[in-house]
Please model this.
Amino acid sequence: MAKIVDSSCVNCSKKANGCCKACFEDDKLNVFTPLTTDEIDYIVDEKMQIIYKTGETIIKQNTSATTVICIKEGLAKVYVESDSGKNVIVRIAKKGDFITGGGLFNGSVQHFSLSAITEVRCCLINSAKLTTLFSQNSEFAIGLLRRNTKQNNFLLNKLVNHTQKYMPGRVADTLLYLKNDIYNSNSFKLHLTRTELAEMSNMTKESFVRILHQFKESKLIITQGNTINILDEISLQAISKNG
Model:
């Protein structure tokens, strides 16, 4: 069960590096950078910090979008649930990510689910306060729109890749994404099951495992338990490019 670290985060908001202020660090990639001190204090009020255990649902698809999520520690999967029960993982959320659930400016309904892959420490911010600041701070509004556009472009590219690439290309995409965007290492210990990896590649578990075995036989990768070591990234990139 999710654990609420501080129901209000009011006390820590006055600390220089408290749990609330950490979400608004001065970073050119941080969407909150354009906010003034008063605007940050406005968001911090009623902000909650929560720890979710592995496997717990953080956002549920088709529920009311009353909060946005700031990931402070851990990994979570962003996925779409279908009526058939098959999930499609669209990306992995990590430290520093800002998750709106797709409903911040679009009907106030969560358009996908978010579940903890590892233990996740995150802050929940009232979405109504963000929409208020959106109308008051143009620089902040532009930053949100740019982030939303970048996310939409990522999802569009993923959709195109899933419909136009053969299975080896999709598996190569998944491995390169994990290596370059999530773990930032040639060798990484996976926090995902083979089923979840297949859901990232839009294929069955059996097909994913078969392609992974082919990559291993071709000495593109080494697998040992949950650890994958990328041996030939250039060849994986070529497979990805050629589909």
Residues 138-164 form the longest helix (27 residues). DSSP finds seven helices and twelve strands in the chain. The longest strand covers residues 67-73. Helices lie at 37-44, 127-136, 138-164, 167-183, 194-201, 205-217, 233-242.
